[in-house]
Amino acid sequence: MFFNKRFRDTNIGTKFNIFLMLIFILSITLSGGVLSTVLQHTAQNEITSQAKILFQAVNSVRNYTQERVNPLLVARLETEAAFIPEAIPTFSVREVFENFRKSEEYKNFFYKDAAPNPTNLRDKADEFETKLVEEFRRNSKKKEDYGFRDLPEGKVFYIARPFIITEQKCLQCHSTPAQAPKSLLSSYGSEHGFGWKLNDIVAAQIVYVPAEEVFDSVRRSFSLIMGVLICIFAIILIVINVLLKKAVIQRIKSIANTAQKVSTGNMHVDFTENSKDEIGALAVAFNRMKSSLEIAMKLLKHKK
Fold first, then answer.
1. Which of 72, 155, 208, 294 gives the lowest tally of CB atoms within 10 Å of its CB?
2. Under a CB-based contact definition with an 8 Å cutoff, are residues 114 and 123 in contact?
């Protein structure tokens, strides 16, 4: 109640300044919320696009190895004393990606065929990746999973897809140790990477894309744009405030001051409003009222 009465008693100029300040705060808050959402969405789209391009690249390497390189080397797996890893698509993909990561700007990008039971323990799935594989196994219709996770290298965005055994020849190295090439057993042993079956989901293909740099860029862009918006809103509100004071408040004050003089008996002042707007009409009405009052006062003096 006290606040409401105090606000009612505040002059129009102060009320209008409060109103403008509320508009300013509301505009900045809404603009900040919308801008933040748009920039976050844009950043995620950019990261997702990068991850999908990398997926396309590594799968192209995988397909090329499977279709063109493997047929040339597969017979040698049985005869060579040393295992030939280039015959294996997963090996080729990993090595190509590692070469890709040698560039400074791509060092924090990662690719992994994360398997709970891999032949090469470099591909061993961690707890997070194992859960992804289990989720793909539970839901065979799920073709992709994505999101963010924290790695020692920083926050990353990941896209994961199920790796399914679709080729019978893949089982040459992964069905049983007895069927596996001796060179593979001599290189990796007989304890891991076996028991796979056709159409099994044995791993998750995962691309990790660093997100920190992208989101740092988003935060810098957000700060810059918000700074510009605040300046623009502030200038607009200052201009509105000045124009309104000149067009309304100062004119109302002038009429109020003149009315105050008339109320003390000074009939030699006039309202000098010449405009035809509402305030001008108010001034004309006051002038007419003052004239009527002057006539009434003269008549009263004449009768006396």
1. 72
2. yes
Q: What angle do CA 285, 288, 293 make, to 5 degrees?
A: 125
Give the Cα separation of 24 and 196 in Å (integer). Answer: 64
**Rounded CA gap, 59 and 136, in Å?**
19
Claim: this prediction has a pTM higher than 0.85:
no
Across the chain, which distance is largest between two alpha carbons, in Å?
Answer: 139
The one-letter amino acid at 89: P
Q: What is the C-alpha radius of gyration for the chain, rounded to an integer number of angstroms?
A: 40
Domain that holds residue 284: 12-27+219-303
Residue-wise pLDDT tens digits, 145-200? 988 898 887 888 899 999 999 888 788 888 898 888 888 888 888 899 999 999 99
Q: Which DSSP letter does residue 200 get? A: -
DSSP for 113-171, written as a single string: EEBSS-SSGGGB--HHHHHHHHHHHH-TT---EEEEEEETTEEEEEEEEEEE---GGGH
